[in-house]
UniProtKB/TrEMBL annotation:
<protein>
    <submittedName>
        <fullName>DUF1223 domain-containing protein</fullName>
    </submittedName>
</protein>
<dbReference type="InterPro" id="IPR036249">
    <property type="entry name" value="Thioredoxin-like_sf"/>
</dbReference>
<dbReference type="Pfam" id="PF06764">
    <property type="entry name" value="DUF1223"/>
</dbReference>
<feature type="signal peptide">
    <location>
        <begin position="1"/>
        <end position="19"/>
    </location>
</feature>
<dbReference type="InterPro" id="IPR010634">
    <property type="entry name" value="DUF1223"/>
</dbReference>
<keyword id="KW-0732">Signal</keyword>
């Protein structure tokens, strides 16, 4: 069973950002020794909600595959807000994540969006709790070389932000760098809604993200650590290279520590 909602808006902020991009020359660069490297791009984006009774099996499956494929799979859990009205406000839900899912709905020419939905590499989607489909797609995608290699040179936590520098190789014309902060795991006691009186475990929860235009192959930036992150949370920084059609062509991740 999946939970669906009709798309009511086709005005997509992300698409308009991509439309403003101009072409920039790609630079030739040397590979730094101190870096985290992603040699393949198996990026899983699970759209889920603590207010959806169909989502816990998909949440558990995402946790399972991230344990089994720690190097090949980049797992992201986006909590949407359109099930909050049922009675439980998901603490990780943001309207921006619902808008992101709608953008995928436009791309896939879907008349509705649903939870749990799994999107792989921004290229295709299926029901997030479908174990057989997920493993089949992981096996297929992890044998492919990434179009872009992205490296994190260093990270530093300063005044509530994660500062970092990066290097990207491959074609970067009309591509964006998606910067994502994820909490490794969180357990929640749900008191209302469809999952009332259940204890839910979510993993790789997206708590902050931003986009950077890839004007050059080298750069540095920072991303704010939101208040929902506690000192006991494991925190990971992920960088994804994304094309105008939302396809993901490269990825890298690194654990963040004080």
């Amino acid at each position: 069973m999946v939970k669906k909602i009709i798309i009511v808006s086709s005005t997509l902020l992300m698409m308009s950002l991509f439309a403003l991009l101009k072409a920039y020359p790609t630079e030739d660069i040397h590979k730094p020794k101190d870096s985290a490297v992603g040699s393949s791009s198996v990026v899983l984006e699970l759209f889920t909600s603590q207010g959806c009774s169909s989502c816990p099996p998909a949440d558990a499956l995402l946790w399972k595959v991230k344990q089994e494929f720690p190097n090949d799979v980049f797992a992201l859990s986006y909590h949407v807000d359109y099930w909050d009205y049922i009675g439980w406000k998901d603490p990780f839900a943001k309207p921006e994540y619902t808008q992101k899912q709608r953008a995928y709905g436009e791309k896939f020419r879907s008349s509705s969006i649903y939870t749990p939905q799994m999107v792989i590499n921004g290229r295709e989607h299926f029901v997030g709790s479908n174990r057989e489909e997920l493993y089949s797609k992981i096996d297929a995608y992890k044998t492919n070389s990434a179009e872009n290699m992205i490296k994190i040179i260093n990270t530093d936590v300063v005044n509530g932000t994660v500062a970092f520098s990066y290097v990207a190789t491959g074609k970067i014309d009309h591509r964006m760098l998606r910067v994502v902060l994820v909490i490794d795991e969180r357990v929640t006691q749900v008191k209302r809604g469809e999952n009332r009186n259940r204890t839910l475990k979510n993993s790789n929860i997206v708590v902050q993200e931003k986009y950077i235009e890839l004007k050059q192959s080298r750069g540095e930036s920072s991303i704010q650590i939101p208040d929902i992150v506690s000192k006991d949370d494991g925190l990971t920084l992920m960088l994804l290279v994304e094309k105008a059609d939302l396809e993901i062509t490269g990825a890298v991740k690194r654990e963040v520590s004080d």
